Amino acid sequence: MAAGSDQARRSGRAWARCDLEHIESCDGKVILVFHLGGRTADATKFVIRDGTPHLLSLRRDPFLGGDDFTARVVDYMANLIRGKHGGRDDVRADAAALRRLTAECERAKKALSYRDETVVRVRFDDDDGGVVSLLLTRAKLEELTGDLVSRAVGLVESCDGGSDDGVDEILLVGGSTRIPMVRDPRQGLLPWQGSQQGGEPRA
Questions:
Q1: The domain at 66-143 falls in which architecture?
Q2: pTM of the model
Q3: What is the block-wise mean pLDDT of the chain (203 residues), using blocks of 10 residues?
Q4: Which residue, among 14, 16, 19, has the nearest Cα to 196 in the 3D structure?
């Protein structure tokens, strides 16, 4: 019973994330909702009958989220700073500097959703002081996070394979679904022409 109740609760959350006005026009269709939040990801497959969702399958990865994408950028930038500025200690050992770097990497990750490159700037409070500026490209972000995207694709494919019903439309929810590599049809996550952003992004 506990497992069933938990599944129902998760499917209810997925349904609540949908754009209900859009869903009302989808009667008879099979909808897959993919949510990539800050710390978790889930894929939920429904069939809509008389305006009511009926759960077909549900898959969840409790260890995949937008924070993981940001963490890859943080590690890359920390190593780059240490390599180019050898006199500095590892930025990850300085709590204040690490917080600033993480916030800046989060900003850069979002910026690369609509730019090909951006600059990551980190201010230091050590004896050397100053600001370190480093370039981050979308191509590098994709290189750093390719395996995370593959996990997202696997989650969607697993959910889609959970029943015999094909998918008519996929809805993307969560700020990290705006990452171009996540939305790229060539990655296998969005094989359907009807894909759209579902409701307001929530991460």
A1: Alpha-Beta Complex (3.90)
A2: 0.80
A3: 48 55 73 90 90 88 96 95 70 86 96 95 72 93 94 89 72 86 66 41 33
A4: 19
